[in-house]
Task: structure prediction
Amino acid sequence: MAIHANKNSALCFANVRMAKSKWSNVNKSAVEQLKRLSNELQVSIASGDLLLLDARWYVTHTGLIRLAARRRCSGIQVQPIPEFSDALNRRYAFKATVFKSLQSPGFVGYGDADPSNVSFLVHGAEMRVAETRAVNRALRKAYGIGICSVEEIGSFAGQPDARPESKKLPQPANGNGNHTGPKVRDRLCQIIRQHQLDPNLVKAYATDFCAVKTLREATREQVENFVTHLADWAEKDRNALLCQLNSYPAQKEGAA
Result:
């Protein structure tokens, strides 16, 4: 019991430390919930089991499968539901049943997907998304997991209402000059504020997008292309953008 308690304590400490270094919006409530999830489910942020989106914790498909393996899940049965599926319109529905043991009656979960409720990044893969959602829901039901899985989030779930100014973003200036010109910088700051993005994670993504070691090395054209790309993605699918940003380690303020 002491060894198990020590492992839980170490995992909890590691999760809290990584969460604070990875995300800037980890408030006291999120920390307390993370501690409970760590103790009850033995989930690990380092292993990709959890994501923090809009100050809410979401379990991932990876986290659920790892949990099922730790709990010695007997099996998962998945089958399509033809009457609720339409391949021509890329609309699919699945039923998943999780068997915790050989004697378990099974815990059932349903999942659906179509182009209107998945990220545009996975258009064409709606069938796999529907299957994953069904499995996730069945696993959450079987193991009493109250938080939603990130794969179950609809394409625009949780996205703030569009503001009038979102259609009137200032256009970047033409011509040569330093890429930190006021118009480009102001536009980027407006996007970050409007969509409530973490500026440090945006900076890390910009560096990767521009294929440079620091943003100072990027050309004005590269930065303008990134700002346009960021604005477009934030408008179309904020949740997918947040997942992309959260894949980067948080940089310290002022790093470039």
User: Anything to note?
Assistant: Confidence is low (pLDDT under 50) at residues 156-180, 252-256. The radius of gyration is 21 Å. The CA atoms of residues 49 and 63 lie 4 Å apart.
